[in-house]
Structures are given as C-alpha cells and as structure tokens.
Amino acid sequence: MPETAFDPGQIVRGCRLAPFTTLRAGGKAESLLVVRDADQLAAAAEYAQSEGIPMTTLGGGSNVLPSDAGVPGLTVLNLARRIQVSEDGAVEVDCGAPLQDLFLKTVQRGLAGFSFAVGIPGSVGGALVSNAGAYRANISDRLTGLEVVESGLRRWVSPAFMEFSYRDSRLRRPGSSDVCLVRARFQLEMGDAKALYDQARDYQRQRIGKQPPQASAGSFFKNVNDKAFAEGLDGLPPALKEAGVVPAGHLVEKVGLKGFRWRGASVGLRHANFILNSGGATAGDIRRLAEHVAASVYERFGVRLEEEVLYLGDWSGWQTTGLLA
Ligand SMILES: Cc1cc2nc3c(=O)[nH]c(=O)nc-3n(C[C@H](O)[C@H](O)[C@H](O)COP(=O)(O)OP(=O)(O)OC[C@H]3O[C@@H](n4cnc5c(N)ncnc54)[C@H](O)[C@@H]3O)c2cc1C
Question: Where would you tag: which of 8, 169, 176, 314 has the fewest CB atoms within 10 A of its CB?
C-alpha cells in the first residue's frame, strides 16, 4: 500500500452530515474525510484504529440517523467504487460502490444475483452491515469473502465473520463498530440478461408505487418474524401468516398512525413503515416520532419494534419518552 494513501491534511473539521444522509437530518461530524479508493479507506481505518480514534464509515447515508449532538471522532465518506467482474462470475467490489452500479455491471455480463438491489439506494458496505435485501434475497446470499480492517490490521475474512441474520450482522451490535469493510467478493451465476432486466424493472415499478418520494431512510423498523403472532393477526394476507412475517408497516397502520406528523417529521401515507423528513425535521424530531410509533405498537400489540435504521454518534443526552403526550 502506498505510504501516501492516507492524508490527514484532507480532513475537514465540523462538517454537517445531513446532506450526506437520505433523511437530510443530523448534526456535524467532528472530522470528515472523503476517500475515493480502497487503499485510502483501509489506511484511514488502520490509522484511526491504531490511534484509538472512533471511526464511522458512511456509504450512501441511506440507513442512518446521525445525532443532532454530532458524531465524535473521524467520519469517513466512502466513495471507493471500483467493480471488477470476471468471466466466471466472480465479482470483487469496493464497499463504497452503489448497489445500482453493482446490478448494472453484473447484469451487463448476464450474471444473476443483484436484481433485488435495484431501488435500494446505498453502498455495498452499508448493505452488508444490515444484510440488506428485498424480494426474498439478501446481499449476504452470494458473498464469498470480505476485506476488513480490524484492530489496525487489513485482511480477508470469510462471510461467517459477519454473523449475518435477517437485516442484521455483528457490525450492527454495540462495541463492534470498530470494523471497516473495504472490499467484498461475490460469486454469481449466468442468467438470462433480458429476464433479469425485466425482473428489475418489475421490482422498480413496485417500489415506485409503494415508496414515498420524500426524504427517508427506507423502512424504519424491521418486520416481525413470529408465526403465532402472524397467525392471530386480523387482516394479514394468508401468505404472510404462512411465512410467519408481520410487516412493521401493517402494525403502524393498524394503530392509526399513517400520515401522523410530529414537527417536521411524519409517518408515510403510502408506506407506514417510512418515517419522513417532511421539511426541517431535526434528528431528535425523527427519533421522537419513531419512539411514539414503537410505543403505540407495543401498547396495542405487546410487540417491540426494532429499528432497521441505525442511530449514529452521540445520543448520550437523549431521553426516551415513548408515547408523545
Ligand atoms: C428509499 C429507500 C429504500 C430502501 N429500501 C431498502 C430495501 O428494500 N431493503 C433494505 O434492506 N434496505 C433498504 N433501504 C435502506 C438502505 O438503503 C440499505 O440498508 C443500504 O444498504 C444502506 O447502505 P448505505 O451505504 O446507505 O449505508 P449507510 O447509511 O451509509 O450506513 C449504514 C451503516 O453501515 C455502516 N457502514 C457503511 N459502510 C461501511 C463500511 N464500508 N464499513 C463499515 N461500516 C459501514 C455505517 O457506519 C452505518 O452504521 C432503503 C433506503 C431508502 C432511503
């Protein structure tokens, strides 16, 4: 790796993070570094980890809510986007690459596997952290290896390192944020390019019909996997009862919060699991509304909704209130 890969002179102090998030909310990064290749990212992570500086890597900012109080330490905006596709379907990709680019580059070679990702606005790294997925496919399905920086060391690890489950990996858990994902390898199989484009177009059409156009981080809460609960719930389609899946949006709708507003934040009208920045919402407004939604669902159904969106930075002064008065 070149010695010049990491240049602390490029660090910007006190940079607003809201423009780098799809929710358009949150405070400032204590320091922000933009990297454009995998070596720069790895070098920044090696530096931060060996100096004991907390580091947050940001991809598309489409699954996060940074605190109004800011994000301490070093925030690295990962714009490393190289994608290499081999004849045999092996793919090596920088974790800052947008999922859309990954779909396009692979489908152009007739490779199947990433149609599900069309319309998910983030990067490969952010998708791996939350095991992002849609239409019964997940980013972890075809993963064969990951390059990480952990404890100041850069190395390749197997997918088992991530301990993936539904919308979850060990990188979402407290204390494990000290891992930076640099590159990922996938193994894809040949498919029919036209059929893959058609499928992606169909998925995109479904999304346009369901997703609100305003600023959001997609689904705010995870769906509830509980067969007994699903079977006993009125109005849930039979296929979901059979699968034991209760969409969080179904519960939010049932408690009558579709379209509910709190200051600049609101619950989606088209999709009740979307919390929107309808104009000028602070991160606190958004989190307060999310807590009201979760408390309302708990009061009615006794089920605790778990956030899919990650709260970043210093929330130490945050007081959880539950239901809004
Ligand atoms: C309109 C809309 C629709 C969506 N639809 C879906 C959907 O269908 N399915 C789904 O699963 N999600 C969906 N999402 C959520 C989101 O797009 C995905 O979770 C996405 O993969 C997140 O990627 P990102 O790069 O934006 O992550 P970010 O928001 O930038 O980061 C998310 C987390 O990952 C960490 N992180 C990011 N990159 C790295 C890295 N290189 N190393 C270590 N940590 C890293 C961050 O620190 C943060 O904790 C949607 C969001 C929106 C706005």
Answer: 8
